[in-house]
Design a protein that fits this description.
The complex is a heterodimer.
Chain A (H helix, E strand, L loop, with lengths): L1 H46 L11 H14 L1 H33 L1 H15 L7 H8 L3 H25 L3 H9 L4 H38 L5 H10 L3 H29 L11
Helix pairs in contact in A: 2-10, 3-4, 3-6, 3-8, 3-9, 5-6, 6-8, 7-8, 8-9, 8-10, 9-10
Chain B lengths: L6 E10 L2 E11 L4 E5 L6 H9 L6 E6 L2 E2 L7 E4 L11 H5 L8 H10 L15 H13 L5 E5 L7 H18 L2 E5 L3 H7 L2 E6 L2 E7 L11 H16 L22 H4 L1
Parallel strand pairs in B: 3-8, 3-9, 6-7, 7-8
Antiparallel strand pairs in B: 1-2, 1-4, 4-5, 9-10
Helix pairs in contact in B: 3-4, 6-7
The chains are: A mainly alpha, B alpha/beta.
Chain lengths: ~280, ~260
């Protein structure tokens, strides 16, 4: 009797823990059921010949193509070219957006002079500029950089401007009464206060950056992921086309992770960004 | 540290458009005195403090510290606001040492210890309670060794126990550093607990100027304390309240953070 009473509380928690673990694993696996199932169905459909390779290659062929391109080094070359294009465009457009946003946000004269013009230009979609851009730059590298720079400029400009304008005026007043110089006030109060807004702009820009890159590379390119896919299209190599599409997705995800990492680091003081320790 | 400043206010007036907030105010404050300014909200007491701080310019008359006219912000003067106004992106110690040269950071640590938060220096302000934040703000003001400390209802948002604890802390630091202190409050009890001299401002004028000669530390249970508090409060309430003002002893002791009590008891 006595033993049973003692034994029960000893065994149930471990049983419960095992069950809990199984449930936890199950809960993690369930979301993967549908995507994995779709790929299996796709593979079966391709193997049985229901799906023409002209429409979609078998998943296994996509993996093989990716492997082939990686082994030959071709994949890496094109990824490097595309990433460099995207990042150069971002650096130019984003850098200008940041600089002008800081300027119009902090200097009243600059705002009156520039802001309404920029707000007007903002309404022109970057892609609408393509015919003009081709006339101006032809179809070489500078055209692609220009398109990317123009499109990433506005999210960063607007959010920087907005961020600076929304820094708590009480904190600025405090900084002034505590004898901060103009530069210290900027470095200690205004920039950090605007940072969360600037990072929102950066994340927007990163999303746009890939979209514009894809369009620009699809129009014309002698290298890069877009070149890889368009070239493959001419030879009906749908497996390579799919590799290119997946590469774009992967790079986009990577950029987003990077931006989130920056947020975690720069906004680590903010309770909403976790740690705060 | 060279003690407190002498503050002279001569014929000071402040107008916002048509509205006259302060009228021909005269006041002389001895070095090292603790002055409390009480009054209903909108009576002009906060404006007076902002004028002394150099945050606003007078319409007429002038302010003099040690005989020199106050123009704009002043390095001898520090202000503690109603809100702590800590930079949320700087750790506690960096907030205290804001604007200090790198070499003086050890002084930041010392002052942080004086307000009882020595071991919290590495934390983010978001993790502190309301009372702790105000103590950090007090440390930040004191680290500059001000000769005039302005307190703009800094305890208004704290709970009752934390307020009493803060009164003791402010009093002990004032006795230690001997700066001139100017406290704006609408809590008469707070004014009587801390000040050498209580000044009532009504409609932009000084309506009462009373020396409080009670021995320190003062106890609110003391009958002499209660008598002075009642007399001043009655005087404040004499004049019927205008539309939007609240009773002068509005204590706002409502929803302070419960974890602040730990330090308070």
């Amino acid at each position: 009797m006595n033993q049973q009473v003692q034994a029960l509380p000893l065994t149930t928690p471990s049983l419960g823990a095992a069950r809990g673990f199984a449930l936890g694993v199950g809960r993690r696996l369930v979301p993967w059921l549908v995507p994995v199932g779709l790929i299996v169905v796709w593979q079966i459909a391709s193997s049985l010949g229901w799906l023409s390779t002209r429409v979609l290659p078998a998943p296994i062929d996509v993996v093989k193509a990716a492997w082939r391109l990686t082994a030959s080094g071709e994949l890496w070359t094109h990824v490097k070219v595309s990433a460099a294009r995207a990042l150069t465009g971002l650096a130019i457009g984003g850098g200008l957006g940041l600089a002008l946003g800081l300027l119009t946000g902090s200097v009243k004269v600059a705002e009156t002079l520039l802001d309404s013009t920029l707000q007007m230009v903002r309404n022109i979609p970057a892609l609408a500029l393509i015919p003009l851009v081709i006339l101006w730059f032809g179809i070489d590298e500078s055209a692609k950089l220009f398109l990317i720079a123009v499109s990433v400029f506005f999210p960063i400009y607007l959010n920087t401007f907005h961020g600076i304008r929304n820094v708590d005026p009480q904190l600025i007043e405090m900084g002034r009464t505590y004898g901060l110089t103009r530069w210290q006030l900027y470095k200690e109060v205004i920039l950090p206060g605007a940072m969360s807004s600037i990072l929102v702009g950066l994340r927007f820009s990163l999303g746009l950056m890939w979209v514009i890159l894809i369009v620009a590379e699809t129009i014309s390119a002698q290298s890069g992921i877009g070149y890889l896919t368009m070239n493959a299209r001419e030879f009906l190599q749908t497996d390579i086309v799919l590799v290119g599409i997946l590469l774009y997705a992967l790079l986009g995800k990577l950029a987003d992770l990077l931006a989130r990492g920056l947020e975690r680091w720069w906004l680590r003081w903010h309770p909403a960004y976790g740690a705060a320790k | 540290m060279s003690g407190g400043v002498r503050l002279d206010i001569r014929g000071l007036s402040k107008r916002y458009g048509e509205r006259e907030v302060l009228r021909n105010t005269q006041l002389a404050i001895e070095p090292g005195q603790f002055i409390a300014i009480v009054g209903r909200s909108g009576c002009g007491k906060s404006t007076l403090l902002r004028l002394v701080a150099g945050l606003e310019a007078a319409s007429e008359g002038g302010l003099f510290t040690d005989g020199k006219a106050v123009e704009g912000l002043h390095d001898d003067t520090r202000i503690m606001f109603q809100e702590a106004r800590l930079l949320p992106w700087r750790r506690v110690l960096d907030n205290v040492a804001l604007g200090l040269p790198e070499a003086d950071r050890t002084r930041g640590k010392e002052v942080l210890a004086q307000v009882g938060l020595a071991e919290r220096g590495g934390e983010w302000p978001a993790r502190l309670s309301g009372g702790q934040r105000q103590r950090v703000a007090l440390a930040r003001a004191l680290v500059h060794q001000p000769r005039l400390l302005l307190l703009d209802e800094p305890l208004g948002a704290l709970d009752a126990l934390t307020r009493i604890e803060m009164h003791r802390l402010i009093e002990s630091l004032w006795l230690r550093h001997r700066f001139t202190a100017l406290l704006v409050t609408h809590d008469v009890q707070e004014a009587v607990a801390l000040a050498d001299r209580v000044i009532l401002i009504e409609d932009g004028r000084i309506a009462l100027d009373e020396n409080i000669s009670l021995a320190r530390p003062r106890s609110q249970g003391d009958p002499a304390f209660a008598a002075i508090e009642k007399r001043i409060l009655d005087r404040v309430l004499q004049k019927p309240a205008d539309t939007e003002s609240e009773p002068a002893n509005d204590t706002r002791w409502t929803d302070g953070p419960a974890h602040a009590l730990r330090w308070a008891v």
